[in-house]
Amino acid sequence: MAGLGVGLIGTGYMGKCHALAWNAVRQIFGDVERPRLVHLAEANVDLARARASEFGFDKATGNWRDLLTDPDVQVISVTTPNQFHADMAIAALQAGKHIWCEKPMAPALADAERMLAAAKASGRVAIMGYNYIQNPVMRRIKQLIEAGAIGDVNHVRVEMDEDFMADPQALFYWKSEASSGYGALDDFAVHPLSLLWFLFGHVEAVIADMVKPYAERPLAEGGRRPVENHDIASVLMHLNGGISAVLMANRSAWGRKGRIALQIFGSKGSILFDQERMNEFELYQASGARAEQGYRKILSAPVHKPYDRFIPAPGHGLGFNDLKIIECRELHRAIAGEEYSAIDFVHGLQIERSVHAMAQSFREQRWVSVPKG
Description:
Layout: E1 5-9, H1 13-29, E2 36-41, H2 45-55, E3 59-61, E4 75-78, H3 85-94, E5 98-102, H4 109-122, E6 126-129, H5 136-146, E7 153-161, H6 184-188, H7 190-200, E8 203-211, E9 216-218, E10 224-226, E11 232-239, E12 244-250, E13 259-266, E14 269-274, E15 280-285, E16 296-299, H8 320-335, H9 345-364, E17 368-369
Parallel strand pairs: 1-2, 1-4, 2-3, 4-5, 5-6, 7-12
Antiparallel strand pairs: 7-13, 8-11, 8-17, 9-10, 11-12, 13-14, 14-15, 15-16
């Protein structure tokens, strides 16, 4: 049987991640046919041809709509800047293609809702690029919570910090435009929100604050431009089941590179995880002799599926791109009609609603309930 025919729109950081995943999913898992890398689209045909040669795609185009009419393309990866996701995903779904779209769905909630409507009308699979939930460590943490290893969870704290916008003299670019979204909330904090959704389900209510550390940034051609969104956000939340939670996100945090620090507190213990040390977590259980109680560090190992598909020995570690390969395998499961673990457009829209409720809360300076369903 021939493998899925793949189209790719965008070849930046995440475009390359998708290409690596499409190239490796057969090698790692062995239970899917090798995808056929059919058609790649970029902003101009010369760049598209160069990237197609590098990534292994057969055809290249400077017009992404060419992928919609290509009969050999069955699934399209959308990895462009946020403001283009809706138009591209909707058009692809209407053309009968499955979709693997990077987060967030869209800067405007109405566009995210249109994306879900298009997915439902098409009958095609549409999932989001939330690969942090694919970490075997995160899957084990979920199992421990559900098994009651730390009792009833009552409080969660999650922080996401990076420093790619920490330099006040860094040039203005699209991530600081209002058209790209709220800033730290939807470009960034959606990742920890994906972990909260994966572990606990629905965010019920929020109250948020946002900060703009630098009011303007320099332009390459000279002069300066006002920053149009916020690089820092702090949110109090109520999660499903009455769990209290705190979310803090900062895109301008010097020294932080890929930090998603998660602390989960329960009636019988706690769990700690940090994405910068993504191959380990710490477990505290309030049992046994008090003199020996303390956090236990647990390293990734073949027993934490599907770590074993990558490495046969414990403690060697997976990386960010490996999580993308796992996500690609889950997409294959979804398309095959099997049970899968990924955030589809239904649950993606719930994350979007959480983000927009946070922005509304900031504007109105009050608690806001998050609609469900």
